[in-house]
Amino acid sequence: MLDAADLPDDIAALKAMLIAAQAREVRKDERIERLENLVAAFKQAAFGRKSEKADPEQFDLALEDLETAIAAVHAEDEADSPQGKPQPKPRVANRGSLPAHLPRIEEIIEPESRICACGGGLHCIGEDVSERLDIIPAQFRVIVTRRPKYACRACTDGVSQAPAPARLIQAGLPTEATIAHVLVSKYADHLPLYRQAQIMGRQGIDLDRSTLSDWVGRAAFELRPVFDALIADLKRSTKLFMDETRAPVLDPGSRKTKTGYFWALARDDRPWGGGAPPGVAFTYAPGRGGLHAERILQGFTGILQVDGYAGYNRLIAPDRVGTDIRLAYCWAHARRKLVEITRTGSAPIAEEGVRRIGELYRIEAELRRLPAEARLAGRQERSAALITDMRTWLTHHRARVAGKSPLGEALAYIAKYWDGLCIFLIDGRIEIDNNTVERTIRPIALSRKNALFAGHDAGAENWAVIASLIETCKLNAVDPFAYLTTTLTSIVNGHKQSRIDELMPWRCI
């Protein structure tokens, strides 16, 4: 409750304060609603009538994603609170235990000066000591921070002590390196948090999975601006790749999963020597409709290379209002349909189609890494004639093959997307296929095979934030652990939003 003495006398300042307070209340109500939905899903997962029938590992994954999502909302709430406003109650934290056998690395943070304002020397009268759990690969250790307190013998002007260093988890145990290790283990190495807790337990470090979930949720919240900057940087490009893949998400309280989708937006200009660094950003959506692609691509203008999924047609609809997008299609998908036919028996026409597309790929292999102008010239000289001849071949056989047969459908697919398949002949920056983005999306398929992908929609959104940064690190040959450690440390120490581009993964090369 504000005291009248704290309110400004200026009417304009009072209006601004009132508007800011109302905006905070709206955001607070939205967060309360999100938390209520998460708690309801949590209770259903924990106490629902069918929950006992679920696989134990899937149940644990659901809980950790829900706890991570709740922690991210709490972090958002704390960040939105006015500075200096006391929290209504301290955050409940599982402090764990730091075994005595772990090595201690002590650092002493001294005040800037040990000379009192009166001119006398300060002497140590005590110190504050804190311990945080740190980690290096395959070894845990404890960082002991000592902050001596000094007072003057000649006067009583107070105590001098260095300020405590900033932390991502206030009053928490982990260093930023520890949190980075947990993130990489979960999102790059597919090691769920409850298994990580078990690994720590073998070294005598007693931490609940819920504690690790809290760390991950708060890290996801702090990394969100970097993720947003990554997407914005990608959409400033004039040529991108896009693909989507299923993301099974647990429907709390039942044995069933619902199907969400991850949309991958990728850039890789290395095949033609472009100057923009490679990157990929994943966006979770509850469905596969083209409206999701349109929302993700808002503000992008240029060439978008995709597969033949019909949802992308929404981006080039005649009545669409928005920026200009041109679709380039994928010869690998066209070839794949013909290859499937050859595997069922003798198929001379399909085999001929595979051979013709193979000739285009052989030319592309020779042109790879050449400048865009040289690639375009090589394609015009060597590939254009093959494409012209293939068009004649395609028209000839489509007139003679039953349209509803597997071969007829494969040829119809090529004919339907012909213009987009041939666009690589007029722009040396365009690839012949969409394999670039398919490679970046493979970690999702790996997660899908190993275990349930996500325990909640909000958990999938946090996955998108962290996995995007990790996979972009990989594309740029940057160690994800080193990058996340450095980035989280920079954020904790007040890295300015106006310089967020400095935290892009490729800036760490």
Automatic annotation (TrEMBL):
Residues 114-155 form the Transposase IS66 zinc-finger binding domain. Residues 172-461 form the Transposase IS66 central domain. Pfam families: DDE_Tnp_IS66, DDE_Tnp_IS66_C, LZ_Tnp_IS66, zf-IS66. Residues 468-506 form the Transposase IS66 C-terminal domain. It comes from the Bacteria. Residues 34-106 form the Transposase TnpC homeodomain domain. Residues 75-97 are annotated as: Disordered. This is IS66 family transposase.
